Known about the structure:
Elements: E1 3-9, E2 14-19, H1 21-31, H2 44-57, H3 65-69, E3 72-77
Antiparallel strand pairs: 1-2, 1-3
Amino acid sequence: xxxxxxxxxxxxxxVETAATTADLVAFxxxxxxxxxxxxxxxxxxxxxxxxxxxxxxxxxxxxxxxxWLETIDGVELSDGEAEPVPLAxxxxxxxx
Length: 96
């Protein structure tokens, strides 16, 4: 199971992340709720926590949950087909 999520920052930029098995199990352990309940009762806290946990697990943020919330404008379920984020230039050629 995987949930694709789009995180919009306070500056208007957006990034895609996916809540995967590791995030979903962590959710169940943290909230003592089954992820199966998400289909019936999806809370904003739920998708925000999953987005934060996914980013934290991938070393995309070092912030704790509530400070991280202060940096975002919102989180929404997505189809996982956002425009790719360009890589930062390294100065090194990528082809011969």
